[in-house]
Amino acid sequence: MRSSAPRPGIAIVTPVFNEEAVLPELLARLTAVFDTHPGCNWRAILVDDGSHDGSATLIRVQAERDPRFALVELSRNFGFQSALSAGLIQAASADAVVTMDADLQDPPEVIPALVAAWREGAEVVRAVRRSRAERGVRRAGFDLFHALYGRLTDYPIEPNSGTFGLLGRAAVEAFNRLPERHRYFPGLRAWIGFPTANVQYDRQER
Ligand code: UDP
Ligand code: MG
């Protein structure tokens, strides 16, 4: 049984594109989460998506210092969805995979709550914003997108959710078997099915 496994392997997958300004804080906050939750076998897979800044170097130095961190370096900028897909393939042996952005709008401190929801039986866990920091035109754009997307699909996505969440191993396997090359992660996450849970959190300003 899942809950009797002493130390589940949890991988964090994060696409990174020109994030040298926030990476030191992200790496420190992930380390703090890992250190305060020794009940899991943590691994962070940071996918450098062809950054032009020092992002890859920062991740490489961290990986040399702490084997819980790994760098996957793409040969050029492929875009967020492709970088995420590359990370999910690398993470296929984990019991569960947390997907998140690098820019700290997805707070690492929420990760233990995602893992807890998974250990209670959810195969897909979505982190859902209690409040969105965006306003104005950007906010209106998101609202319009979700209104249109909701009318076009039989598998609507939770409007206040994005990449941030967790996939159990079966969901990761399903995702990795999808034939789509041009992917929209939250849409496919809704489409693959599986028992799903939401975890509420407050989203930070970029
Ligand atoms: N990102 C990436 N490749 C890109 C653009 C972005 O890997 O070509 C990463 C970026 O570093 C961040 C995540 O994808 O970790 C989300 O990007 P961003 O914050 O720009 O998207 P938004 O939050 O505006 O949806
Ligand atoms: Mg962002």
Task: Write up this protein.
- With 206 residues, the protein is of the alpha/beta class.
- Helices cover 38% and strands 22% of the residues.
- It contains 7 helices and 7 strands; from the N terminus they run βαβαβαβαβαβααβ.
- Strands 3-2-1-4-6-5-7 form a 7-stranded mixed beta sheet, with helices on both faces.
- Strand 2 (41-48), helix 2 (55-65) and strand 3 form a beta-alpha-beta unit.
- The mean pLDDT is 89.
- Magnesium ion (MG) binds at residues 101, 103, 105, 206.
- Residues 15-17, 19, 49, 77, 79-80, 83, 101-103, 105 line the site of uridine-5'-diphosphate (UDP).
Major β-sheet profile? 7 strands, mixed
Radius of gyration: 16 Å
Distance between the termini: 40 Å
Order of helices and strands: EHEHEHEHEHEHHE
Report the portion of residues in β strands.
15-25%
**Low-pLDDT stretches:** none
Question: Which ligands, by name, code or SMILES, are bound?
Answer: uridine-5'-diphosphate, magnesium ion
- Based on secondary structure, the structural category is alpha/beta
Number of helices: 7
Strand order of the largest sheet: 3-2-1-4-6-5-7
Mean pLDDT: 89
- What sort of overall outline do the alpha carbons produce when their principal axes are compared? globular
The helical percent reads 25-40%
Count of extended strands: 7
Search tags:
206 residues; alpha/beta; binds uridine-5'-diphosphate; binds magnesium ion
Please outline the helices and strands.
Layout: E1 9-16, H1 23-36, E2 41-48, H2 55-65, E3 69-73, H3 80-90, E4 96-99, H4 111-119, E5 124-129, H5 136-152, E6 161-168, H6 169-177, H7 185-191, E7 196-201
Parallel strand pairs: 1-2, 1-4, 2-3, 5-7
Antiparallel strand pairs: 4-6, 5-6
This protein binds uridine-5'-diphosphate and magnesium ion.
